[in-house]
Task: structure prediction
Amino acid sequence: MEPLNELSFDSEVDDLQNVPVVLDPPTGLPLSAPRSALRNVAVVAVLLGVLAAAIGHSTARAIQLKLDVVTDYEPAAVTLPAVVPAPSAPTAPSSVPTAATIEPTATSSSSVSASVEAPVRPGGSPTTAVPIAVEPVPDTAPPITDPAIVSRPIPPEPTAVAAPVLSPWTAASRPTAAGYTATDVGCASGTSAGDLDTFFANRIGPVLGHDYQHVYPLGGSRYLWLFQDTFVDYSGTATNLGQAVFAHNTALVQDGACFTLYHRGSIGVPKSFENGTGESRLAKWFWPMGGQTFDGKVYVFWAEMQKDGYEPSPPNGLGWHPSRTWLAVYDAKTLARLSFAAAPNSGVTPIYGYAVDSDAEYTYLFGNTFEQNLQREGGYFNGPHSGTNMWLARVPLGQFGASLEYRTADGWTYDAAGAQPITQRYWAENPTQPRYLAGQWVAVTKVNGYWGESLAVDVANDPWGPWTNVETRGIGPRGGDPVMNTYHAHLLPWLDGDSLVVSISQNARNMQRDAWPSPARYRLAFFRSAFVAAPARPDPVTETTVSESTTIPETSTTVPETTSTEPTTTTSTTTTTTTSPTTSTTTTVAPTTTTTSTTPTSTAPVSTTSTSTTTSTTPESTTTSTTSSSVG
Result:
């Protein structure tokens, strides 16, 4: 296999723009970063004096070098304008031109339920697929030269305060009728990968850092972002994660390019956005998985997490595991929680709902065990682990309460025990995050998750595959920081021109030692990746019937002329007269654009699996041209 192309977030290859960004809403106030930088300098000076006197100049110099890394991540001073103009929302690219590489060849009659509209997707101009090699499941564990110490210490739980914290964001915060505290945290300069990378690299209002981002279209120019562990500081003075308040999950609502933070509790004592059936700090909590919006309601799957009674030793992962799967329903406008109940399949082996998206006829629930404590499976070196399998189930479009059909090796079954993985690869994790974009499926995967150092991009015509790997490249943290790593690649539901927008979580390998004093290491990064069309479907196979005639003395065989009916490319659509919302729940449109939902011309999933090998064109780069058929 050819060497991987290393990705750097400040590389010109990724078209990341160094653009100004407004983060905090208070009028005319500079960011807290300069104050924290001065404070760090003072602390450094004191420490250097003490250490130099006590243990010598050489040791003090070593400490200085380590602290220099911390101060390097503080943002420069920014004076905020009195009025923050709202940049434009992500625009819907033009529709994909009809092409054999992405359009289905079989006739489909799509009958959409009158109560649910098929999602309208952003178009684009995907390039032709040039598949590259996919490594088989390894027999032995990949070597690890710097095992991550990934246990996450958290600050002590804050005590209730009688009066609200004197906060720079007091005027920008308000209670909502749905029981949340909402705080306007500013606007990015736009919604391109470069704009978002700049925005999320800095402190976002009171948020010092967070990870495991999931983005759900709400309709129009609004999007819901849900995060896992979040460190919140409404005082504006914290420069260390240990000085912040910890929440197991939080939310941002994006409108255009502006963001509002949502959580429960108050600005004095922030609490998790979703406490499920009851949260017990670092003992039982809830983390967001996949979801989608239909008819003004947001459906989100949540994994109930349980703390293990020990901390796994490096490199065996994190000391917790999922114990149950839940399905929450929220009002798409207010985020009021309408229900929180056990998912139709509430098990966790796998979590069906780990990722979610729909085509014109079905909503697909992708499954993964999300097992991060590899010690529960015999340790890192006892792989491949359960998280290397991806599974698939489906329900009729938007009907999350319906009985699940599970993908088998060659069809579907209502029996969960008959399910087969649609892919299995890597050693520790195969955390695939798929989306249905412009009439095809595309997915990004951080190879081996927390334990890996590369990114895979795959495409398919059907969610069960075959999946074709079109890009694999090395991926490093922002600035190439050697103490950091990356994990959880997640596709955004819009395009940056004709390119995918990929987000990724970042942290220090030793969080307490290296990210605790430098919160910038615990923030997201964004970059672009080519939007590649899935390979053309194979031509339909025509069956020829051969009959023998015995009316002639000679034993001759008469082959009757066979009429082959070529599937037409006309799709029969069913017009609905529903009064459901005029925009689909996953529509990506410009703020001033009115979108009329139309039934896409994609083919509904069939009950058989194609295992034909696709012969790719000769790659123009150094990649190896092969097709990955990942059918279970």
In short: Residues 33-55 form the longest helix (23 residues). The first strand starts at residue 5 and ends at 7. The chain has four helices and 32 strands. Confidence is low (pLDDT under 50) at residues 1-89, 91-115, 543-632.
